[in-house]
Specification:
alpha/beta, 8-stranded parallel beta sheet, two-stranded antiparallel sheet, globular, binds NADP nicotinamide-adenine-dinucleotide phosphate
Length: 276
């Protein structure tokens, strides 16, 4: 299975579908990465906060795939903001991963109440120049945060990774990102488990009519919206089905039907008040 790639504004490209790794520890994630690579995954999303970069790195090495065929994202959260802390922070991530560089480094949360994200972004610009982060981006940034960044810095984030699914389509964020050449990446693309998304009746109907699973219908919605998605699963069969979404299409009426899910799981995460 070959996953299409989406061009980033720094000249590189990101596989449109990757594997999320949150809440799987080092021991759990290592074999999952090996299975995922066998199934065709090339893009893996981790974070300093997840505490599993050692396992992700072990899985990558065990897979035997050349480094240049993989796309690895990590993120630095609040403790690494300000005072060039991200430099030592990324070095520690690379040590744990056993890598010389990451393909994408994200600022995990804006934490606007601390007022450090612009200063942190300047450090990220240095890390991009050093080559230790091929591309730099942000996560959980709202248009207002991106406007602040753009007024005071010169490098446009390559990616904005935000909570996004049919239940939280975040059209305003996507529109801002698209207008500024920022690729939008969906976290909790399946609703994160427990949101009821995969049990929704509209999705069940579409799944039946396409002979697909609810997760495949939802992931196809991300793909057709031009989003990058990083569903997480620890189970081989689900890993396989989550990647197998590039050979069918939802028509306009079906996409409109999915738009009715907007707001069915509450307001979603507000990064003005939430983050770590
Ligand atoms: N930047 C941020 O602030 C942020 C925040 C949250 C998450 N993320 C990233 O986004 C990734 C994905 O988000 P997420 O992990 O919250 O949630 P998700 O990928 O939307 O959903 C994961 C849940 O869906 C289940 N699942 C996966 N495939 C399935 C399938 N085909 N059928 C039925 N159930 C399925 C998984 O269970 P099984 O394992 O049992 O299959 C798990 O419970 C994370 O792992 C992380 O890398 C980033």
């Amino acid at each position: 299975m070959t996953v299409p790639a989406i061009a980033l504004n720094n000249g590189t490209a990101i596989p449109q579908l990757g594997l999320g790794t949150a809440s799987l520890d080092d021991e759990q994630i290592e074999p999952v990465i090996v299975t995922a690579v066998e199934l065709g995954y090339r893009h893996f999303d981790t974070a300093a906060k997840y505490g599993n970069e050692i396992g992700v790195g072990r899985g990558i090495r065990a897979s035997g795939l050349p480094r240049e065929q993989l796309f690895i994202t990590t993120k630095l959260d609040g403790p690494y903001q300000g005072d060039d802390r991200a430099i030592a922070g990324l070095d520690a991530c690379l040590d744990r991963l056993g890598l010389d560089y990451v393909d994408l480094l994200l600022m995990h949360w804006p934490l606007p109440q601390r007022g450090l994200f612009v200063d942190t972004w300047r450090t990220f610009e240095k890390l991009a120049e050093s080559g230790k982060a091929r591309a730099i981006g942000v996560s959980n940034f709202q248009p207002a945060h991106l406007r602040t960044l753009s007024a005071q810095t010169s490098v446009v984030p390559a990616v904005n990774q935000i909570q996004l699914s049919p239940q939280h389509p975040r059209l305003d964020h996507r529109e801002y990102d698209a207008r500024h050449g920022i690729v939008t990446e969906s976290w909790s693309p399946l609703g994160g488990g427990g949101s009821g998304l995969l049990e929704d009746a509209i999705i069940a109907r579409l799944a039946r009519s396409h002979g697909r699973t609810p997760a495949q219908i939802v992931l196809r919605w991300h793909v057709q919206n031009g989003l990058v998605a990083i569903p997480r699963s620890h189970a081989a069969e689900r890993l396989r089905q989550n990647l197998d979404v590039f050979d069918f299409e939802l028509d306009e009426q079906e996409m409109l039907a999915l738009a009715r899910l907007d707001g069915t799981a509450g307001p979603g995460v507000d990064s003005d008040v939430t983050g770590h």
